[in-house]
Amino acid sequence: MRLSYSKLSAYEKCPYSYKKVYIDRVKTPYKKYFSFGHSLHAALEDFYSGRLSYWLGLKKPSKENLISALRRHWKSEGYSSEESERAFEEGRQILENYYEVFVRGDFSPAWRVEPQFSFSAGRHQVGGFIDRIHRNDGGFEIIDYKTHRQIPEKETLERDLQLPIYYIGCTEYFRKKITAVSYIFLRHAKKVTYDVSRFDVGRIKQRVEMTADRMAGESDFRPRRNNYCGACDFKNECGLFNSA
Ligand code: SF4
Predict the structure, then answer these.
(1) Contact 42/31 with Cβ under 8 angstroms?
(2) How far is the CA of 13 from the centre of ligand 1 (A)?
(3) What's the pLDDT tens digit per position in 215-228?
(4) Where along the chain do its domains lie?
(5) Closest CA to 10 of 211, 213, 200, 219
(6) pLDDT level of residue 54 (50, 70, 90 thresholds)
(7) CA of residue 101 relative to chain centroid, distance
(8) Is the separation of the CB atoms in 178 and 167 below 8 Å?
(9) What's residue 41's pLDDT?
(10) Are the C-beta atoms of residues 122 and 205 closer than 8 Å to each other?
(11) Which residues of 150-181 are buried (b: 16+ CB within 10 A; e: fewer)?
(12) For residue 14, which atom of ligand 1 is closest to its CA?
């Protein structure tokens, strides 16, 4: 089975909605927050790619360069024109703040932006894209941007498979020594870094493989209540949600 973090995570949250999205391919209404997240990610990808420095001969791109990148990559799908302007302003403030916290004192282009990776877990193949891989002291750091309004609880983040999967992808696919893995919560200009020495590759792969085996053999796809039920596109047809 070919898997991504998004598929695994969707199945772990709720097999019923996973089936609707990934197997039945039910078209769901486009969400504004997809546009917002995409725009911020694309601006940062451009900013760290080294293209700006290359084109403009800059050692360090300016805050205005970052905002120009946001303007170039702004996606207004799902917004009315007024909403789009307000959302762009919000994005601009987020990136200005980001620049002050993460760039002003220390900038270098990424080693890679949005590189694709894959690795095997038993008979399954896991792949995906990483927002940014950066050189740091003694190795490389994996960075993933988040646009959450609220930073999830520490325990929720620690249980999540995303960074462990990226860690394995980088060590096995790129054969790089990863010394840190981090989320950057853009709305909060906050970086949360994890010590990679706690990652047990064997156990992570085992968890991925067991979940993938369950997915491959699944026939019921029963709904499973979770923290995202309120925003689920299938809640009106979901017996579990409506039995609450
Ligand atoms: S509302 Fe139902 S289908 Fe949607 S995520 Fe919750 S349990 Fe799953």
Answers:
(1) no
(2) 9
(3) 999 999 999 999 89
(4) 2-26+110-217, 32-103
(5) 211
(6) low
(7) 20
(8) yes
(9) 98
(10) yes
(11) eebeeeeeeeebbbbbbbbbbbbebebebbbb
(12) 8
Q: What is the edge-to-edge ordering of all strands in the sheet holding 116-121?
A: 2-3, 124-129, 116-121
Ligand 1 atom nearest to CA at 239: 2
> Rounded to whole angstroms, how far apart are CA atoms 217 and 213?
6
DSSP H/E element including 215: helix 201-217
CA of 55 from ligand 1 middle (Å) equals 48
Q: Which residues have any ligand 1 atom within 6 Å of their CB? A: 14, 16-17, 223-226, 229, 232, 234-235, 238, 240-241
Distance CA(46)–CA(230), nearest Å, equals: 34
Task: Give the DSSP H or E segment for 149.
Answer: none
Distance (Å) from CA 8 to ligand 1 centroid? 16
pLDDT at 244 over 70: no
Other beta carbons less than 10 A from residue 57's beta carbon = 7
Q: Which residue has the tokens 């805050």?
A: 63
